[in-house]
Amino acid sequence: MMARRVVPNLYCAKPQDGADFFAGVLGLEPVMDLGFIVTYASPDNRTAQISLLSADPSGLEPGYSVEVADVDLAHDRALAQGTEIVYPLTDEPWGVRRFFVRDPTGAIANIVSHR
User: Fold this and answer.
1) Is residue 48's pLDDT more than 70?
2) CATH superfamily label, 3-114
């Protein structure tokens, strides 16, 4: 299986402000905080996640992220199908390799693997 998790991305001015609701009400734990993004996950099911972003460093706004086992293979498949690549395959300084595509609904998907 290629996809490991799918995470919705919500945009807001201050991602850290979500702690009262996502942690306090829903019981999710912050598992990543890079300032511009905070990801919350269930302590019982680490693939149940949501990310809050103030902005993506790409300048784009991907609506969701899909962690895959092999991002290079996913990129090759997207190219082979003629899927629109809207952000090139990139090694990011925070330890991921990713690219963005426009899915059939018009939404931008962040396809990502951890290095």
Assistant:
1) yes
2) 2,3-Dihydroxybiphenyl 1,2-Dioxygenase, domain 1 (3.10.180.10)
